[in-house]
Amino acid sequence: MTNLLLASTENIDNQNSQYTSLNDPEIASVVAHINEEHLDELLGFLSAFTSLSTTELDLVDAQITDIYAEGIAIQTFLKSSEIQPAGAHNTSLDDQTFFIAFAAPISQLDDLQAQYILLKQRADKKLGKKTIKLTKQVFEVQDSYRVSKNMLRLELSMPSLSNDTPLNNTAQLSDAKGATNSTSVPTNEAGYAYLFDLEHNAMTDALMTDSTDGNKAGDYKTNGSDKENIRPARPHCYYTLRKAWQADDGIRAWVDVFLHGDTPGGNWAAALQAGETVVTKREFPEKVEHLRDGQAVLIVDETSIPTAARLLELWNNPTPPLVICVTQDAGDQSYFDTVKMRSGLNCDTENSSNNYFTVLPIVTNQSNSGAELATLIDSKLGNYLTDNPLKIDKVWGALEANTAKALRPLLKDRLELSRTDVVVKVYWRHD
């Protein structure tokens, strides 16, 4: 059963004895990562698998206290008093621990990701939310070109739609025989991310090279060391679907890749040629539901500019956001010049194509990572709000891991917002 309450913290040690400890030294860092980056998912687990009401969940934050072979223990604790609704006080919610069971027990920490994803899929389905998909998609490269100084756009295509396929938020695909596949491409969704298989192209290139050397690609043989030489330093990379639409010859899509130095993703994107295929293995929607009302601020660097651009084009909030755009090079600030925002109030008027969101640019002339950048962003925002008094209600951002970690508490303190209203994601890590 997935909603087993472990009673109170006084009895937790006795209750926990029925679960199997994994005794892996990496568990502590995994727990810390989930607690730091995935609060919304933990609250979703509690909403889907326990009897806690929406009102009760609005009063608490949550954290994983341990990971067992059979599942995870999630502890609730009351939010700080200054961000609770007036008169809200429920001590029964403070320091309670719930056990959420996996679909199947795990024997080692390496199995955790699969079970965690299954848990999230079950919770999202029960809550009626979009969720992560473990599906394979194949795109064909049509073209590639720069859209700013260091941003490369990949223009991709997919098979044609069947004639009777309804076009709503997604475009379903059909194969050569007209059979509809179970996968779909979102044409009206912001921040939809794909996990691209860089290794697919490295292996394909190796096979093609071998074939042009006079060998049959089908007879290609390689030993373990050769495979390691072919395999890229990073086999997979996430990139946001910048835009997707239905064209006369099928589905077209843009994926924008920031080129910065000698990186696996940048090298992969720059080497792609028209006619090649690219493969994705996983996909998930970005968490932006909290931006539908109130004054929002979006905080992005080159890796998350494409997400923000699509979010602005599909903006579903009557109040335009403030966008803080951090780039190494001033030449990449032009990315937003052609982005037009749809207003939640004015989407049917002639003003709907006006670009009237505000961009606050920050050009660093260096790699955008670390606590110093977080301090700079917070300071720039503070100065802007001093000159332009705004009450910020919501935050969405996506930055380097150390920057995101340092920025969250600064924004919470400055803006006096809850963790659920300050969503600052990790889009990359500085190696």
How does this structure look, described?
By secondary structure, the chain is an alpha+beta fold. It is 27% helix and 29% strand. The strands form four sheets. A six-stranded antiparallel beta barrel has the order 5-6-11-10-9-12. It starts with a strand and ends with a strand.
Overall shape: it is: globular
Biggest sheet: strands, sense, closure?
6 strands, antiparallel, barrel
Strand order of the largest sheet: 5-6-11-10-9-12
* Count of DSSP strands: 17
Order of helices and strands: EHHHHEEEHEEEEEHHEEHEEHEEHEHE
Mean pLDDT: 82
- Radius of gyration from CA coordinates: 23 Å
Q: From the helix content, strand content and strand pairing, which structural class follows?
A: alpha+beta
Low-confidence stretches: 1-14, 161-167, 174-182, 206-212, 214-222, 345-354
In DSSP terms (H or I, runs of 4 or more residues), the helix count works out at 11
N-end to C-end Cα span: 41 Å
Task: Determine the fraction of residues in helical runs and give it as a percent range.
Answer: 25-40%
Q: Approximately what portion of the residues adopt beta-strand conformation?
A: 25-35%
Which features does this protein show?
431 residues, 29% strand, 11 helices, six-stranded antiparallel β-barrel, globular, five-stranded parallel beta sheet, alpha+beta, single chain
Can you summarize this structure?
With 431 residues, the protein is of the alpha+beta class. It is built from 11 helices and 17 strands.
